[in-house]
Amino acid sequence: MKDDITKALQEKYEALGQDLEDHLEGLLHSKPLNYWDYIQTDALLNLQTTRSSYPDEMVFIMYHQVNELLFKMVLVEIDQLAKSRQVNASIFADKLHRISRYFDILTSSFSIMKDGMSVEQYNKFRKTLTPASGFQSAQYRKIEFASTELINLIDKRFRDTIDRNSSYENAFEHLYWQAAGKDYKTGKKSYTLKVFEEKYKDEFIRFTKFYYGNNLYSKYKGLPKEAREDKNLIKAMRHYDYTVNIKWVMAHYNTANHYLNIGGETAEATGGSEWVKYMHPKYQKRIFFPELWTKQEKDNWGVDI
Ligand code: HEM
Q1: Please, which contacts does 155-160 make with residues 24 or more away whose CB atoms are closer than 8 Å?
Q2: Where are the domains of the chain?
Q3: Which of these, 295, 296, 154, lies nearest to 304 by C-alpha position?
Q4: Cα dihedral sign for 231, 233, 237, 240?
Q5: What pTM was estimated for this model as a whole?
Q6: Could you tell me the mean pLDDT of each successive run of 10 residues in the chain, 305 residues long?
Q7: Domain 55-149+214-299 belongs to what topology?
Q8: Within 10 A of 198 (CB to CB), how many other CB atoms are there?
Q9: Which of these, 68, 30, 26, 78, lies nearest to 47 by C-alpha position?
Q10: Closest residue by Cα to residue 170 from 159, 180, 184
Q11: What pLDDT shows up at residue 70?
Q12: Given this model, what pLDDT does residue 56 score?
């Protein structure tokens, strides 16, 4: 063994208060690494438990799992950028390209959902999934919290009533997605929303506190003027915003239409939302980086798509 490596190892284990000899002996007895152990293929391929006997349900489960893995990749990237103290326009744009690449995959592959299952099978096995809904994807919500300031996720009907002095609790109650699980006349929450909040609300508030000044938009706004005006960076920001909030949302909406709008009759979704209205970008008006779009672009967000 090279002297410098031996020395570095000695220093490493000394600092840990550990005996290098013991660790070297451990190496002698440990098994060589295999691909399947490292990637945990056995565990991974045992995570698909169907609730019906329809084969297309496997497509449904696995594609959702692929989505969750890619959501995690997005969050890992955003986390790196959020914690980085030395960001310039080029590093920022580079990271955004990475994040967008994952969402580009999610958008272009959504046809697996729309055209990759039989409508007949889908409408049978989905009945076994009520009241679960993709609406309950915590990582999707985290991507939103990590991408923009909380105010941009507030239901646009209530934006004027929420300011920096509002508590997280109050802001949380007025997030745009509450509309999918709440009857605004009675204020009653659906079961789907209630259990989702019971499981994740505390975690979301903690997460949002960290991202208060560290989300992508705040981070961008904290860059020097010259960097903020960098054309490549602005292009990357707009691309990400458009991909997540229009292209993905529309691919999703068109899929819902394909399965749940049969002969002009709208079927109720598993999560029970008024989905036809709720899911369209022109109603949600969710825009991560509003300053990077013109008034006209914002007014026409999701219109004519
Ligand atoms: C056949 C495929 C799909 C259909 C028909 C569908 C349908 C719907 C509907 C109707 C909603 C509104 C809430 C409700 O009432 O349940 C919803 C929400 C949602 N779904 Fe899907 N979905 C599909 C696939 C997916 C996939 C693959 C994902 C990826 C994880 C996903 C993630 C979500 C998310 C994140 C929401 C909340 C969106 C928001 O608040 O704007 N969905 N889905």
Answers
A1: 155/179, 156/285
A2: 55-149+214-299
A3: 296
A4: positive
A5: 0.94
A6: 89 97 96 96 98 98 98 97 93 96 97 97 97 97 98 92 88 94 84 97 96 96 97 97 97 96 88 88 94 96 86
A7: Methane Monooxygenase Hydroxylase; Chain G, domain 1 (1.20.58)
A8: 9
A9: 68
A10: 159
A11: 98
A12: 98
* Contact of 103 with 240, CB cutoff 8 Å: yes
The two tokens of residue 245 are 């909030």
For a substitution probing ligand 1, which of 252, 280, 284 has the most ligand atoms within 8 Å of its CB?
252
Report which residue type is found at 261: N
- Give first-to-last CA distance, the chain, whole Å: 63
Task: Detail the DSSP E strand segments found in the chain.
Answer: 261-262, 265-266
Distance 259 CA to ligand 1 centre (A): 12
Q: Which residues line ligand 1 (CB under 6 A)?
A: 63-64, 67, 113, 133-135, 137, 140, 177, 180, 252, 255-256, 259-260, 269-273, 275, 279
**pLDDT score for 164:** 80
Q: How far is residue 131 CA from its own chain's centroid?
A: 21
Q: Contact at 8 Å (CB) between 241 and 289?
A: yes
Looking at residue 184, its pLDDT comes to 67
Question: Interhelix angle for 138-147 vs 56-83, to 10°?
Answer: 30
Backbone angles phi, psi at 154, to 5 degrees: -80, 140
Q: Do 212 and 75 form a contact (C-beta atoms < 8 A)?
A: no
- Residue 263 CB-density burial (10 A; 0-12 exposed, 13-18 middle, 19+ buried): exposed
